[in-house]
NFXL1 protein (Chloropsis cyanopogon), 670 residues
Amino acid sequence: LSSLKKFDEIKKANQAAAKKLVEDQLSSSSEDDDEDAEVKQGKILDKTFTIYTSQTDGDASELERTRQYMNEAFQSGAMTCLICIASVKRNQAVWSCCGCFCIFHLVCIQKWAKDSLFLVSSPLTDDDFGKKDYPWPCPKCRFEYKRSETPSRYYCYCGKVENPTVDPWLVPHSCGQICEREFKPSCGHKCLLLCHPGPCPPCPKMVTTTCHCKKAKPVPRRCSAKAWSCRLPCGRMLLCGQHVCENLCHAGDCQPCPRVSKQRCICGRQTAERLCASPQWQCDQVCGKCLPCGNHTCEKVCHAGPCGDCPRSGKRSCPCGKTKFTLPCTEDVPTCGDSCDKVLECGIHKCSQRCHRGPCEICRQEVEKQCRCGKHTKRMPCHKPYLCETKCTKTRDCQKHQCRRKCCSGNCPPCDQVCGRTLGCRNHKCPSGCHRGSCNPCPETVDVKCNCGKTVIKVPCGRERTIKPPKCKQLCSRPPTCHHSTQEKHYCHFGRCPPCRQPCQKTLACGHLCPVSCHDEALVKQTGSHQSAGPWEQPSEPAFIQTALPCPPCEVPIPVECLGQHEVSPLPCHSANPYSCKRFCGRLLDCQNHTCMKECHHVTKLNSSADGKKAGPECSQCEEECTKPRPAGCPHRCALPCHPGDCPSCLQMLKIKCHCKLSVLYIECL
């Protein structure tokens, strides 16, 4: 039974892990190829902006900020929850701040609000716990929300649909309906985009409105830019009542009059040059006019209107306030002789002296006092505070450090030590005072740049190690590493530049230019660098080194004549030397009867004007007998070897008999 139970537990854990892996793969924003994702994203943006651009005749310049928020919603890793420092995925419940439009996991923001409310309304730090509705702030912009505004459900951006379904053809966490949120500042119109993250764009409606000074005729303008200036002088009367506003048509109230004029003070005794915008001013002279009593003068400084009655006239009270006297203004009010009975500073006892002028003395009565912490009592004068030397052992609100304050009342102050814990970004430490719970997310942002530094995206601190650098559309500006003066155009990148594919164009020894691709940085397999210790050692992967290869042999075709001048053939430049065409030489030998039967060979011309078909010293020598036809009647062969021209006369001696056969003659054959 125990083994079966353990098997079931492992089975459930594996199924949960497999399910989470499938969800992560489906919800990942980088699930498609880059090109398909960009095309798909462009279609979704066009669909979202269609109604808005139809009102602006295709002008989308006011949508750049909203477009940036939507691009971040599509880009993998761009939308990050600042509370848990994790990516926000398509299938996760989220909440968006209405102040900074930052997106958080719904669970994270609920925990954040709960912790914030607990910290500010803790009974250790506030005596009014439960009596006041304390707000909680947004983690990023510190925009305050009431306790009742703590999110409890997952809504789309426009707030119409609860738990919006995951649709790959909509912006993540969008319901796909028209936004219809009120524009800020409110103009009476509603947003025309489909449900979207970030702020609504400016109102695209057309309205007819006049300028600030109301002098120009009303003209049709975009509602978001309906306030305009006609650039004419304002002309409205200023507050001084003497001059008009000379500024160009402007919004709001006119500026104070900048002119200077002579103005009298309030009492009219002095005159000074002052700004026309502030004509009323006071001098530093005491009024000094005689009051109606005839005994005193007015002690007010430069005032308007009558001075009023003498402040010492009428009924006046004694110092303790129990008795009233009607006396001339020249006499002082006497004391009444009764006890003072004013409450002293202690708030418990009353003054026991007789009616007197000036402040009452401090309370000197002996009372039994309890110290602030309530552990000790002592008899001492009422006006002296009593603090014992006992140190408070309670833990402060951080739940880490003791109070250690002498004679603490139990309402321990917040911990005054710095937290100093490493934040989730792993780059900074918490600068807040020592506190309970998790630290606030790091407020810093980090610039993630491309290699050249011209394309920059801002990410929360700590995400720079996992997010991909932005794609830069600038051309790579690195100098070429080969012999070329410029490299092939390609976009900014990290790592080594791609191999140069330009033609080499080095001048070869033959004078031609090398036509093959650049080979200054070729990868060559390195062999023989490591010998295995035995058959048990696994063969290592081949190592490649980068080296410059020599230019290959020149392959430019060059017309070359064979040795015997029988033909002309195109040969590669590197092997363009005289060759044998394998035919018979065919040159006419000196005998003028036969041709050279040697294989095509070089022939030296003895005379520049000699016939090109005539045999040379290298040709074979004719060793045949003369085969020319003999004259009629000569039965002998030519005695000479094969020779040019006619054969010589035959000198062979013949034995000839006469007709009767009796006489014999010896004569030459000719």
